[in-house]
Automatic annotation (TrEMBL):
Protein name in UniProt: Quinone oxidoreductase
Source domain of life: Bacteria
SUPFAM superfamilies for this protein: GroES-like, NAD(P)-binding Rossmann-fold domains
Swiss-Prot/TrEMBL keywords: NADP, Oxidoreductase
PANTHER family from the UniProt entry: QUINONE OXIDOREDUCTASE PIG3-RELATED, QUINONE OXIDOREDUCTASE-RELATED
Entries under CDD domains matching the protein: QOR2
Location of the Enoyl reductase (ER) domain: 11-325
One cellular component (GO) term of this entry: cytosol
One Gene Ontology molecular-function label: zinc ion binding
Any single Pfam family the record assigns to this protein: ADH_zinc_N
């Protein structure tokens, strides 16, 4: 048996219920993992609210760390007793114990704690593909300006550090002066409080009127128009989230009139579709974390039983950095 967080219908945080669930034996390609810590992600709120619809009932959670307890047929990269961490579909990480596909589960290096492993997989692998795999052609070069919204959040603070390590000039936005200060401490070259400042005008000022090569926009509805105005010709708008709501359809003519722009709507799950790509990206993440260039800030911890409050705080923009559920 395992305690788990389940919803029986889409809705607000009050729908999150702690239940007891039976956990069986892993089938082919699966493992059973006993969690040590669980990562909280903004995507969990979309799955709870129904912005991303699911069949009910649904056990939530996309990221965790733990110890492998049983291994199904055909799983070669994990064995019983391994320390492990993952970002993976289907949801189900908000639990003490679960059976799940092994494909996206990686051995966690001994030097990385369970809490760090639980906090960093989904957000760190996302940062990896955003900075290294999203821009086609020549990619990002040292010295390039990029704009990263919600820079003091979970993905945001990892991106500030990783961008700095790559020599990029990350301009971060955040919703308060305190959050802007945090983004600067974590390596942003510039920070803009987009609650009080016109971020597109400030980006033009910072870049000497040129604009940035890529805007990473996870805020969506409230920012996408301003984001387009921040791009240099041939620039890329990467919309990767819906913090304020989804982006409405963008007329293609806008992309022409603003300078032959590109738009993409990427998701981590295309990038980790195979075991090989998952492991290659995880190895890159483990290396940058072990080098000390990227630290994983766990700024909030909640007991599993307090998951409703965790969702309320995340949606109310009260959190910074990463959040974990402790077991
Ligand atoms: P964060 O810790 O970044 O929390 C979201 C932040 O968004 C808030 O703290 C807030 O920062 C900002 N925000 C702006 N407007 C709103 C609003 N109206 N309501 C709530 N928050 C708002 O979350 P995560 O690190 O978990 O995820 C960051 C984003 O990245 C999310 O949008 C998520 O969906 C997306 N994501 C996408 C992935 C993909 O592959 N496509 C994978 C992983 C994450 P502030 O107060 O500074 O504005």
């Amino acid at each position: 048996m395992s305690k788990a967080v389940r919803i029986d219908r889409h809705g607000g945080p009050e729908e999150l219920k702690i239940v007891d669930v039976e956990v069986g034996e892993p089938g082919p390609g699966e493992i059973r993992i006993r969690h040590k810590a669980v990562g909280l992600n903004f995507i969990d709120t979309y799955q709870r609210s129904g912005l991303y619809p699911f069949q009910m009932p649904l056990q939530l959670g996309m990221e965790a760390s733990g110890v492998v307890e049983a291994v199904g047929e055909g799983v070669a990269h994990l064995k019983v007793g391994d320390r492990a961490a993952y970002a993976s579909q289907p949801p189900g990480a908000y639990s003490e114990l679960r059976v799940m596909p092994a494909k996206n589960v990686c051995k966690l290096p001994d030097a990385i704690s369970f809490e760090t492993g639980a906090a960093m997989m989904l957000k760190g692998l996302t940062t990896q593909y955003l900075l290294k795999k999203t821009l086609p052609a020549e990619g990002l070069q040292p010295g390039d300006f990029i704009l990263f919204h919600a820079a003091a959040g979970g993905v945001g603070l990892i991106a500030c550090q990783w961008a700095k390590a790559l020599g990029l000039q990350l301009i971060g936005t955040a919703g308060s002066d305190a959050k802007c200060k945090l983004a600067l401490e974590y390596g942003a070259a510039h920070a803009i409080n987009y609650s009080t400042e016109n971020f597109a005008a400030r980006v033009k000022e910072i870049t000497g009127g040129k604009g940035v090569k890529v805007v990473y926009d996870s805020v969506g509805k409230d920012t996408w128009e301003g984001s387009i105005d921040c791009l240099r010709p041939f620039g890329l708008l990467a919309v990767f989230g819906n913090g304020s709501g989804p982006v409405p359809p963008i007329g293609l003519g806008t992309l022409a009139s603003k300078g032959s722009l590109y738009v993409t709507r990427p998701t981590l799950f295309t990038h980790i579709a195979t075991r090989e790509s998952t492991q290659a990206m995880a190895d890159d993440l483990f290396a940058v974390v072990q080098s000390g260039a990227v630290k994983i800030p766990i700024d909030q911890r909640y007991a599993l039983a307090d998951v409703q409050q965790a969702h309320r705080d995340l949606e109310a923009r009260k959190t910074t950095g990463c959040t974990i559920l402790t077991l």
